[in-house]
């Protein structure tokens, strides 16, 4: 989990470097969703959280290949909202 968090953090930095705002917003939401379980030795895997993160990976590709797209931004906002319950 810590490795996944670090990978997402690295992606966030890279997309910010290239000004990919939608990808940055999405990676930030993904990173925040992992904060609650990061560093814990035991935690319960939430299948909905994992499924949402996998959908985010697909959306990340769209953010990188089709930047500054209004529809992509709507999808990022939707997906970020889906991740909100996992941020606690």
Describe what you observe in this structure.
The chain has 88 residues and is mainly α. It has four helices and no strands. It has helices at 2-17, 21-34, 47-65, 70-83. Helix 2 packs antiparallel against helix 3 (47-65) and helix 3 (47-65) packs antiparallel against helix 4 (70-83). It starts with a helix and ends in a 5-residue tail after the last helix. The model has no long low-confidence stretch (mean pLDDT 93).
Strand proportion, as a percent range, falls in: under 5%
The dominant shape is: globular
Query: How far apart lie the N and C ends?
Result: 16 Å
Radius of gyration computed on alpha carbons: 13 Å
Mean pLDDT: 93
- Please provide the count of β strands: 0
Q: In which range does the helix fraction lie?
A: over 70%
Helix run count: 4
- Output the helix-strand order: HHHH
Structural class designation: mainly alpha
- Please outline the major beta sheet: none
Low-confidence stretches: none
In brief:
This protein has helices at about 1-15, 20-35, 45-65, 70-85. It is mostly helical.
Task: Summarize this structure as a short list of keywords or feature phrases.
88 residues, mainly alpha, 4 helices, 72% helix, 0% strand, globular
Blueprint (SSEs and pairs):
Layout: H1 2-17, H2 21-34, H3 47-65, H4 70-83
Helix pairs in contact: 1-2, 2-3, 2-4, 3-4
